[in-house]
Model the fold of this input.
Amino acid sequence: MPQPTHAQTSTIQISVINESTVLADADVVPVVAALQNQVTNDFRPVWGTDAELTIVPKGTQPPNGSWWLVMLDDSDQANALGYHDLTTEGLPIGKVFAASDLKAGTSWTVTASHELLEMLGDPNINLTVFVQNNNTAGMLYAYEVCDACEDDSLGYQVDNILLSDFVYPAWFEGFRTEGSTQFDRMNKMQKPFQLLVNGYIGIFNVSSGSGWQQETAEKRATNVLHRGAVGTRRERRDIPHELWVNSLPQRKIVGNAQKYRQTLQTIQKRREAA
Done:
């Protein structure tokens, strides 16, 4: 079955930063290796985008010009430490909320794969596909490559690490007929814009004035279900770019992280003493 591809682009440098209190560096190392294999072997041949992932040792500065993939506990920690909408240089940043995943019973490794691939596919969170219904109406679809097939049950193993499925460019091409080509990595989709179990996609009705909403696999639009936490791609898509905030300098974030962990330790000691 033919696989539509995009032209090859230059290799993007990704700095992987672990600030999560629930993930040890030893937990992150094999996942980064699996993510590298996924990008190089699975994503690049189809989307034409390659990346080199490098773990940033604690207390050191990410290389200039790199994009960031940051492991955090939750959105509250992201705000407390100063990881905002962009890197300090105004470059793309992806956030993985590991503690939130653990609380929800979902896989943080799938989330890491999801965030990485979507950052590579639409780094500025502003790409869309327009489906015109008639002369005066139509729908914009967010150019997100994992949302439609993001459920953990749809993922696949790379080096024994569970990673996210992702759509192929053909998924956004309405002229494709059912079964005519491959629409996602795991070949579970049969037609453009298909949503699998627990899948969703951001839609923007250009004539309704209702803003961005999420269409789910149940085919009902909503701006409540799947609403993104503060700092996520879903939340940032709703915010005008002139309101995006750069992350704090890494040295400032390191100091904030130390204070944050000390606060957590103090709270834990108080709970144990109560």
About this structure: The chain has one domain: 12-273. Residues 12-273 form one domain. The radius of gyration is 19 Å. The mean pLDDT is 92.
